Amino acid sequence: MPRPALRLAVELDGDGAHPAAWRRAAHAPGELLTPRRVARVAAAAENAGFTLVTLDDSILPPDSGAGPVGRIGAVERAAFVAASTSVVGVAPVLATTYAEPFHVSSQLASLDHVSAGRAGWVVGVEDDPAAARAWGRPVVEGAGALAREAHDGLRVVQDLWDSWEDDAVIRSVATSRYLDRKRLHAIDFTGETYSVKGPSIVPRPPQGRPVVLARPGLVPAGLVDVALVGGATPAETGEAAAAAGAPLAFAEIEVALDTPHETALERIADLERYAPWETRPDRLRYTGSAEGLVALLAELAAHVDGVRLWPLVLDEDLAVLSRLVLPELFVRRLAARPLPGTTLRTSLGLPRPAGRFATGTGTAAALVREETR
Known about the structure:
Strand order of the largest sheet: 1-2-3-4-9-10-11-13
Distance between the termini: 51 Å
Order of helices and strands: EHEHEHEHHEEEEEEHEHEHEHHH
CATH superfamily: Luciferase-like domain
CATH topology: TIM Barrel
């Protein structure tokens, strides 16, 4: 049985995947952190047909001295993108290494409400000791401790989303009650480093839970909706996707495309004068024509459910993706556009999860019926 069409995501942080990408940007350097820039790039991605945009983040500035050393918080950018778009999903990176899970839960639930069910979450990790100093927290050291913090944080966040049942808010004029307190639940979580009572202060998100994306091995696959996989070759990426264990697997691909005036290699060479573009073992890298990228994605379509693209320079590569790559994928039915009025879960073919604390007693429905008599 053939796989469903690919879902397409794109990373929109900064000016591109290359640390010196800002030198080839179509805007003045001072415009990078402006609302106009954020809205323009997000609109281009939505109009092109991407299902999801992601926004990288850290409490620390970007680590390369070749580019900008500041960024607006990913959640704030995501909220702005959600308000200025209507179809594309929006997933900021948020780490729970030092951040309070209660705050992470509230931020993402609010984003899902603002976007009418288009929110996602890329689970991040803060492994630099400087992040602990920025938070004023003890350093979390070692892969095991970082994984434990990520696991506990994700578990608490999801439980907080479930701490309000779907029909907890009743807005009953007849009984002068806004909510049914019996449908709010304390999560009573106790971990190795903290405990959380709950419930959340934000009603359950429209999607039940925003879509969770994470690298394999960071947190248990059972807590993840989309595994972000990669490898040095398409074969390795396919093997990683098969082993991920999550409902969906997206391939991570850095792309540098030929433009009408320069080849991808010429563009890379221009940027390499300022900083190297380091290869990453957890991402594929494609360099060349739009036709070649379409062929690569057609090959990967047999092994993964989607891809997340990291363009070399957003202002240049996103234009080529919009004109030459995505239209060809749609014509060949290798990829699918998201439909207006759908949630991100629906666009990805994911079911809406039931609340972990749901009682199903129908109290809220009974109160609504009482009000309408």
